[in-house]
Fold this sequence. Notes:
- This protein has helices spanning 2-17, 137-141; strands at residues 22-33, 38-49, 58-69, 74-87, 92-102, 109-118, 123-133, 145-156, 161-172, 177-187, 195-206, 218-231, 237-250, 256-268, 273-282, 298-308.
- A 16-stranded antiparallel barrel has the order 1-2-3-4-5-6-7-8-9-10-11-12-13-14-15-16.
- A hairpin with an 8-residue loop joins strand 2 (38-49) and strand 3 (58-69).
- With 309 residues, it is mostly beta strands.
- The protein contains 2 helices and 16 strands.
- The longest helix is centred in the first third of the chain and has 16 residues, at 2-17.
Amino acid sequence: xxxxxxxxxxxxxxxxxxxxxxxxxxxxxxxxxxxxxxxxxxxxxxxxxxxxxxxxxxxxxxxxxxxxxxxxxxxxxxxxxxxxxxxxxxxxxxxxxxxxxxxxxxxxxxxxxxxxxxxxxxxxxxxxxxxxxxxxxxxxxxxxxxxxxxxxxxxxxxxxxxxxxxxxxxxxxxxxxxxxxxxxxxxxxxxxxxxxxxxxxxxxxxxxxxxxxxxxxxxxxxxxxxxxxxxxxxxxxxxxxxxxxxxxxxxxxxxxxxxxxxxxxxxxxxxxxxxxxxxxxxxxxxxxxxxxxxxxxxxxxxxxxxxxx
Length: 309
């Protein structure tokens, strides 16, 4: 990881020296749930274009702070992130990610890589491998990490219909192994710009139920979502809404209703100053949530201030 860190930093320096296009970033994220769990992140950094390495190639550096909390404990980490993306051509690109967390008790080195290939106008393939902490106080106190492998393929059947299929494999440092799959059907009628309907079904199996994080032995979810995005008057801002519901079954027991709702806003105050924001709520989710039912709710928000030159 140290060699990757040095190589990514070296890739960014020529861009700064020759004054290529770059963006300054201020980012803040917050999530909380009805069980009293909370996660917050604050980052400052920049992303620099690397046109000499292909159109759309870039490298980014961010520094900040991550805090996890529950009803009785709180953990904080200083954080450094490096991101590098290279577009080899119009069809093939890859990305590298590095993150160093630091605290008095634990300083994990994390990272990942991903590749994307546009095989044809109809077929698109992606693969990734990433390591991260499990973001609950209970799991982080036990120094738990997860390595996640993903493979996915998109089949654009025609101008309206797309099928997405994916597989997931996760190794957690407490010995738990999770394997699953996702199937998504997307309908985007050409006559209604910015609108689509998504049917998502996923099934994930774990070797054993997670302790201090949400990972039941068997999890099945089906979710129907409606999404619409449109430019606001003046064409400087875009607002996107996503909402829907479905069912969740844990360990093949009785099903519970699930829901998800999000709003996303992106736009520019001036030629050089922009903002992007996202907020939403659901009643289930990833490792740092719980199963649906019993009045459980998880909400999150993110805001990023962008300076572009």
